[in-house]
Amino acid sequence: MNTLLTNDLDIAKVREEFPILSRQVHGKPLVFLDNGASSQMPRSVQERIRLYHSNEHANVHRGVHYLSQTATDSYEKARVTVQNFIHAKHEEEIIWTSGTTDAINTVAASLAQFYFKEGDEILLTEMEHHANIVSWQIHAVSKGVKIKVIPVLDNGELDLDAFENLLTDKVKLVSLVHISNVLGTVNPVKFVIDRAHEKGIPVLVDGAQSTPHSKIDVQHLDCDFFVFSAHKMYGPTGVGVLYGKKEWLSKMPPVRGGGDMIMEVSFEKTTYNELPYKFEAGTPNISGAIGLGAAIEFIQSIGLEKMAAHEHDLLVYATSIIEPMQGISILGTAKEKASIISLIMDEIHPHDVGTILDMEGIAVRAGHHCAQPLMTRFGIPATSRASFAVYNTKEEIDALVQGLLKVQQIFA
Ligand code: C6P
């Protein structure tokens, strides 16, 4: 942990970029600690989206007119920004989707058409978000494919011995989360990818929670697919990315038909467009893609390392205060952990915790976090989760702690 880097960061100045942070909720200053669900959007991203609507709006790839070309240029420029952000080798490896969920469904539906055979296995982990479970159930299990699950240890780390045993010749895909949205565990994805590749097995990485907090280099990771959403990294909702290696995307059939994804159509036969358009049927979320480009530029203007260092500082600070508190336990204590804290309060339901904190102006998420199998693993229905972003402060963590004490007083 480099505290110098953290000190380098002027959080007050960063906060000024987020107008929403100065509003009040229930008469109290907003303390926004639900960044794992959706982070807030800085002025620069809002302004870029507004500029698109006020000055550039037109459909892309369709018109010869000036505005359509301007919109196309901005939209394709954002694709290159994403390519550079995750260090993809080729621009056409970046497919726009509506988010992580859509991206996983696209891969699952496409692989189910030509790749999986009856008796094949897909290896997931016990800490997956529903998006990385149900997509495979819908698209692959109906083809006779079985889902096998890598267990999670008590501290929230993956059981890597079990992983090695489960990685048999029957496995045709490993799909795992990079950073757990509940436990904060940073999974050793490079290790998993290398082991899987030794057996010729492709790997999909769910980067929904990692892109806002860690540098991603898909070429170094060597993952076959990497998916993420804009709204968790200071961008707009309804847009995300499917990165796939060109070798895979070229041989994968499209799963949605419509405009822009075709080369030639007749009632007898249709030929598909080249990558990436083959997977982008219909009018896309143009302002969303441009907004994601602006969100990446915002992140780069601060520097991902500085952001990660500050968030790590917040995690260490919050953990040091909350861990010793009577009647509260933290779910997920992995050695490699991102800035997510899931709390369990003795005899108090997380929804009550969330509601009382809300009355104090503090936004946390309460629930199963779309990870019910993980809840089952730990024998709990839900947790209260605080997740930090670059604009959060130690004072806000102090407010959270005061809020938790108030919850305890109310239930005492
Ligand atoms: N997790 C959370 O509060 P979408 O909804 O498609 O943008 O992202 C789905 C998703 C997939 N994988 C992981 C690891 C995620 O955290 C999420 C979204 C939110 O934790 C909403 S449930």
Question: What do you see in this structure?
Answer:
The chain is α/β, with parallel strands linked by helices and about 400 residues long. Helix content is about 40%, strand content about 15%. The strands form five sheets. It has a seven-stranded mixed β-sheet with strand order 4-10-9-8-7-5-6, with helices on both faces. It starts with a helix and ends with a helix. The structure holds ligand C6P. Ligand C6P binds next to helix 5.
Provide keyphrases for this structure.
412 residues; alpha/beta; Aspartate Aminotransferase, domain 1; 2 domains; 17 strands; 41% helix; globular; disordered N terminus; binds ligand C6P
Concise overview:
The protein is built from 15 helices and 17 strands.
Task: Give the topology, please.
Elements lengths: L2 H6 L2 H6 L7 E2 L2 E2 L1 E2 L10 H14 L9 H20 L8 E4 L2 H15 L6 E5 L5 H9 L6 E5 L9 H7 L4 E7 L11 H10 L4 E4 L11 H4 L3 E5 L10 E5 L1 H6 L10 E4 L4 E3 L13 H17 L1 H19 L5 E4 L8 E6 L4 H10 L2 E2 L1 E3 L4 H7 L4 E5 L6 H18 L1
Parallel strand pairs: 3-15, 5-6, 5-7, 7-8, 8-9
Antiparallel strand pairs: 1-2, 4-10, 9-10, 11-12, 13-14, 14-17, 16-17
This protein binds ligand C6P.
- Tell me the fraction of residues in β-strands, as a range: 15-25%
In CATH, the homologous superfamily of the largest domain goes by the name Type I PLP-dependent aspartate aminotransferase-like (Major domain)
Strand element count:
17
What is the CATH C-level name of the largest domain?
Answer: Alpha Beta
- The CATH architecture designation of the largest domain is 3-Layer(aba) Sandwich
What percent of the residues sit in helical stretches (DSSP H or I)?
Answer: 40-55%
Uncertain segments of ≥5 residues (pLDDT<50)? Answer: 1-5
What best-fitting shape do the alpha-carbon axes yield?
A: globular
User: How far apart are the termini?
Assistant: 38 Å
Domain tally: 2
Radius of gyration: 22 Å
CATH fold label of the largest domain = Aspartate Aminotransferase, domain 2
SS element count, helices: 15
